[in-house]
Amino acid sequence: VAHCKEFFFCGQEPFVADEYIERLAWRTPGGGSRGGEAFDPKRLLEEFVNHIQELQVMDERIQRKVEKLEQQCQKEAKEFAKKVQELQKSNQVAFQHFQELDEHISYVATKVCHLGDQLEGVNTPRQRAVEAQKLMKYFNEFLDGELKSDVFTNSEKIKEAADIIQKLHLIAQELPFDSLMGFCCYPLSSPGKYHDLECQLIQEFTSAQRRGEISRMREVAAVLLHFKGYSHCVDVYIKQCQEGAFLRNDVFEDAAILCQRVNKQVGEIFSNPETVLAKLIQNIFEVKLQGYVKDQLEEHRKSDAEQYLKNLYDLYTRTTNLSSKLMEFNLGTDKQTFLSKLIKAIFISYLENYIEVEIGYLKSRSAMILQRYYDSKNHQKRSIGTGGIQDLKERLRQRTNLPLGPSIDTHGETFLSQEVVVNLLQETKQAFERCHRLSDPSDLPKNAFRIFSMLVDFLCTEHIDYALETGLAGIPSSDSKNANLYFLDVVHQANTIFHLFDKQFNDHLMPLISSSPKLSECLQKKKDIIEQMEVKLDMGIDRTLNCMIGQMKHILAAEQKKTDFKPEDENNVLIQYTNACVKVCGYVRKQVEKIRNSMDGKNVDTVLMELGVRFHRLIYEHLQQYSYSCMGGMLAICDVAEYRKCAKDFKIALVLQLFDTLHALCNLLVVAPDNLKQVCSGEQLANLDKNILHSFVQLRVDYRSARLARHFS
After folding, report:
1. Does one domain contain both 526 and 600?
2. CA 532, 534, 537 angle in degrees (round to 5)?
3. Domain Exocyst complex component Sec10-like alpha-helical bundle, which positions (predicted)?
4. What values do phi and psi take at 517, rounded to 5?
């Protein structure tokens, strides 16, 4: 059984029957194939039977032990329950005793409170009587005129003396003067001694402040709190705090440092530190800052608007920054309103008419910048004029695109200056910044719009629009020879200026008006001025393109000869293309490059497409003026090939397609009569009108031959 018990409980893991049987079989000799032994089922059965018997014996023993433990547990449970009942009874008895004790304590406490009230009722009149006796004693000394008590003669007991005089003063003020007692007490009710003691206390406070004795200052301030002169004590403290505090040039930094130092100290001295600190700040704003601001602004208010505005912006900014620092301190409930009122009191007289000063300065400054620029160019600005005949000319020019009036020679001057533009934008930017800081929030969008209107007047109308008008007037007629075309330079500079103008609009104006009705008004004004200028730019570009085509016509008329395409000696043609073609292509390439340098974005493609179409029409019409021999037709094809090569520089598909078609048409000048129909039905010519094809075939010198006419019909 001992062996079975040891085998049964050999593992720490939970009991598993299958594993238990396996272990038993493994340890039994002949129970498996271990060590080469033959399997012996009888021996294994015998071992199992013996083991089962041992387990049964062990089970009986364990069962008896369990029953014994259960009996013992039941016995102990009964004993424990009995003990708990006894403890409950004891607890009830203890609780009863506790209630009795609590009632007894409450009774005693009631008696003690009652006794204390009786004692207090007896002691309070006694104390009052003692105090009254002392006051009567001090009163007699005042009547005799001799103050002998130590409390009046000892300077260290000034606090007790102040308390006594304060009480006697209040008593004397309540007595009518016409009574005998009131007449006798008049010396106490008069301000003489009371005022003298106040002065002594304030003097003591002042001396303690100079010595830096915080505890003594706190003690004297507590005594003065009940006197009328307490506010004077605060004034003395504020005055002495500022002595030597404003020695540097930066009054705002000095004020911030002073308030920081006082904020740490005032709570240790006064019972109402937030009131004292607020009074100090009010004194600094109303005396130091207001005087400093007045000195700085009045000096330039009427003589120098630029310096006045700069000083006003700087002083207001520094004042508001100081106010932000002071917001960290405890100044009472509504410190934001308190500080705002102080700032408003300083600057109200300057902010009321700020925008008028700003607009006046901006107007004069902008006019001076423009005039200085035109003077540097020795240019007398001509009047563009409005109304009447000028408006009629403008409408006619927009509809016909014809120059009305004589052309003006600008000598290549665009009358646009980036330096002028930068100066105007910089002045306006500073005006927007001042407007943002100095304008009342309700007036900010309106004031910003006025500044924007000034920018539009001087930058867009007086400078850009004037330059466009002058540039338009300087564009020569399309039949002028050797004309210098400077309008594209005007376009280039105007485009750059538009970008700068738009950037300032978005960066500096939009934040000021984004949430107001003025936004739509500004956007409309900007749109109108840009559309107005775009009309003039388009008009100038169109007339410039006409001039370019006119220049090409002059080159072709001067350089192209009739013998170029009908040479006398067909067998002795040595050139690859004509001189007129070379010069025209050279001129066109220069103009294409100039257009690319003068514009950006889709405008480049739009203008180049228009120039390319007009260039193609010119060459097409030019070729229609000549008759072509076989060799002349080959030379024309070479010219058109060169024109097509030039057209590739445009990088416009339509223009290249037009010249491809023109090149295919020129093949009709040299193709054999038998192949004409085949060529005309080719891919590039199949969709063209038959009259166009016929017009090119008619240019051949052999068109009159019956054979050619028969083949083309």
Report:
1. no
2. 120
3. 160-712
4. -65, -15
Predicted confidence (pLDDT) per residue in 126-160, tens digit: 776 666 666 555 555 555 555 555 555 555 555 55
**Has residue 203 been placed in a domain?**
no
Residue 84 tokens read as: 């708990």
* Most confident range, picked from 212-221, 379-388, 553-562: 553-562
d(CA 528, CA 510): 17
Q: Within this chain, do residues 508 and 487 fall inside the same structural domain, yes or no?
A: yes
Residue 102 lies in a domain: yes
Same domain, 509 and 575: no
* One domain for residues 508 and 622: no
What's the total number of domains in the chain? 3
Backbone angles phi and psi of 700, in degrees to 5: -70, 140
Sign of torsion over alpha carbons 601, 607, 610, 613: negative
**φ, ψ of residue 182 in degrees (nearest 5):** -65, -40
Same domain? For 534 and 579 the reply is: no
**Cα separation values, 451 from 204, 354, 357, 434, Å:** 60, 12, 11, 11
| Position 489 in a domain | yes
Residue 285 CA to residue 306 CA, distance in Å, equals 25
- Examine the pLDDT at 485 and tell me if it is beyond 50: yes
Question: In this structure, are 642 and 689 located in the same domain?
Answer: yes
Give the residue from 578, 554, 585 showing the smallest Cα distance to 649. 585
State the CATH number of the domain containing residue 577: 1.20.58
Count the Cβ atoms, other than its own, within 10 Å of residue 389.
9
Report the length, in residues, of the chain: 713
Single residue among 518, 552, 586 that ends a domain in this structure? 552
Is the torsion defined by CA of 8, 13, 17, 21 positive or negative?
negative
Q: Which pLDDT does position 176 carry in this prediction?
A: 55
Angle, CA of 366, 372 and 374, to the nearest 5°: 105
Beta carbons within 8 Å of 238's beta carbon, 6+ residues apart: 276, 279, 280, 283
**Last residue of some domain: 503, 523, 552?**
552
User: What six digits make up the tokens of 689?
Assistant: 């009108």
Residue 35: pLDDT band with limits 50, 70, 90: very low
DSSP of 587-656: HHHHHHHHHHHH--THHHHHHHHHHHHHHHHHHHHHHTT--B-HHHHHHHHHHHHHHHHHHHTT--HHHH
- Structural domain of residue 121, as residue ranges? 1-33+41-144
